[in-house]
Amino acid sequence: MMVVEVKNLSKRIGDKQILSDVSFTVQKGEILALVGPNGAGKTTTLKCIINAASRDTGEVLIFGKPFEPSLKKNIAFVSEHRKVFSRLALGDYYKMYQALYPNWDDLFFKNFLSRYGFSTNQELSKFSMGQRTLILVILALATNAELVLLDEPTQNLDPTVRFELIQLIKQYVQEKNIAVIVSSHEIFELEEYATNIAIIKNGRILYCDSIDDAKQKHRIVSSMANLKDAEVIGLLDGEVLVRTEKDMGEYPRLNQIIIGYLRGKEGMQEIKSGYCQITDLNSI
Ligand SMILES: Nc1ncnc2c1ncn2[C@@H]1O[C@H](COP(=O)(O)OP(=O)(O)OP(=O)(O)O)[C@@H](O)[C@H]1O
């Protein structure tokens, strides 16, 4: 079932085009990773989905409908800046979320509290940035909302907590059959939990697909390979990411697909007669 449909979203601020014709969909059971460099438009896209930022053109449908306030109880969002109300304790947040979200999963949240031993009397603003990130992501999952948006959910987390959180997100999506959109720079860890990928650069989606299909459709080949039946996507160190239906080269890992699209063909002198030549890989 379709949870989010983003159709041809464009947005300009002043004379800067922030988003250009952004389109993708997210279904139940999917974890879509929105990846791209700083300033690519990831946070703006998330904000447009939850109606926290305006758009110039395009459409966003959530559960098949344009945004309306009643949808809020079915959407949870963890923002990039982890802003929290000063003076509100973790216990206050717990009560607030419980009241706002009718499907609140109390057992899940209580298990989390006992697992980490966090005091509900401590002000949320007094937790470390990593602890605050963890708490806000767990609060978002405990809402049982059918759409969860997480901006950089593993930022500032130590490796153990990061691993546990990734497992929790994965397990939670599978068990509850919800949809998650994650904005992330952590391209090496995405393979562990994302099911779909949307690569964004300069406000444009360069590629969007399920990760399994993306791997099927691309190959890593030598820079001197015959590329007659392949579309060159981008350069990796000494190798090339290509899109092809031919069984050539090796299947890529997700991070190679992402880097290939983000780097593009820059540094490639020319592609002629089916062969590509690399000029200076160190310049990429
Ligand atoms: N309110 C604003 N006024 C002016 N420019 C803005 C505003 N909000 C965002 N931008 C610009 O829009 C672009 C996209 O920003 P956005 O925060 O969506 O990127 P991002 O991909 O989330 O980046 P990061 O990975 O650094 O968090 C940036 O160039 C940013 O400077």
TrEMBL record:
<dbReference type="GO" id="GO:0005524">
    <property type="term" value="F:ATP binding"/>
</dbReference>
<dbReference type="InterPro" id="IPR051782">
    <property type="entry name" value="ABC_Transporter_VariousFunc"/>
</dbReference>
<protein>
    <submittedName>
        <fullName>ABC transporter ATP-binding protein</fullName>
    </submittedName>
</protein>
<dbReference type="InterPro" id="IPR027417">
    <property type="entry name" value="P-loop_NTPase"/>
</dbReference>
<dbReference type="InterPro" id="IPR003439">
    <property type="entry name" value="ABC_transporter-like_ATP-bd"/>
</dbReference>
<dbReference type="InterPro" id="IPR003593">
    <property type="entry name" value="AAA+_ATPase"/>
</dbReference>
<dbReference type="Pfam" id="PF00005">
    <property type="entry name" value="ABC_tran"/>
</dbReference>
<feature type="domain" description="ABC transporter">
    <location>
        <begin position="4"/>
        <end position="227"/>
    </location>
</feature>
<keyword id="KW-0813">Transport</keyword>
<keyword id="KW-0067">ATP-binding</keyword>
<keyword id="KW-0547">Nucleotide-binding</keyword>
